[in-house]
Design brief:
- This protein is an alpha+beta fold and 342 residues long.
- It has 5 helices and 15 strands.
- The strands form 5 sheets. Strands 10, 11, 12, 13, 14 and 15 form a 6-stranded antiparallel β-sheet that branches. Strands 1-2-3 form a 3-stranded antiparallel β-sheet, with no helix packed on it. Strands 4-6 form a two-stranded antiparallel ribbon.
Amino acid sequence: PCTQPQAMINTLLFTTALIFVKADSETALVKADSETAPIDCVGKWENFKECSIPCGCGVQRQTYQIITKSSNGGKECEEKDGAMRGVPCNEKPCPVKVYSDWSECSVSCGEGTQTRTITFEDTGLDVPNPKEPLTQTCHLGECCKVGNFSEWSECSASCGPGTRTRSRDELTVNGLGCPDLIETEDCQIAECPIETVIQKDTICSKTELSSDLLKSESSCITADTPVCLKTCKEIDECKGFDEKDGECCFFSEALDEAQYEPNGLSSCYILTDEATTETQPTDYITLGSISASVIISLVLAFGVSKMLSGSSEGGEISKILATPLPRRNSASPVDAPNATPM
């Protein structure tokens, strides 16, 4: 009975040994087969760089890379390791570019710049980093250079508003952008005398001047005579004014004949082309009286002188004193102060 288990153990050990021997034998056969079986080449194309352009049918460069070389008579790869080729890429059409016109030159003369924009037609957005230039240099003619101004000329009018001028020379020839070479400005040396006909104790207004022209509520203003004369002269429609108690009432049309108002203290001023000096008849009468007094004084002085000298010609004194002074005929015109006595 003790021998039976030993026999079973021996059988088990022998069977195990056979299994291992068989396994080793199959491994050896597989290894022998792998060393003698043909192996084909394995390779692939890989992109070398990006596509040459982003759109519009570019070219993509590729290189061939062998992963497994052929052996035991296996097939060779289609290309050698490191071979290169180009294949189409980004074949979609590019967006249409729209180029604007060049802008005006940045300067009016000399050297400046011009700019433009490049946008996509479909979106209107600017093309990023365009290869085409967005600016360019522009050359215009030579800029003008001028000298200093001369002194101002004399005023064109001796009185009242006038003008005066001054000039300067261009230092370039047909330069661009020259400023004005001649300047003119208003000038006035003095106010011109206002030519009027003055009639005292009269009213000559027929049609009142529009208050709108005076920028006033009425056709009358409170002012002294020089101001009233100047105001009327500056308005074309004004023909004159009536003045009384420091108030001037302007008119655009005068009466055919001024209305006399005794002691009315109103004076009529009519603007004319020629000045007429106001002269009252009483002035001439006064001057005539003064002249007569002077003549009488001279005669008396001459007579007294003769009397004191005891001249034999003293008899002529009575003749001189008896000579009547010339009298004014009421029908004759008023004599001027320097008129010759008749």
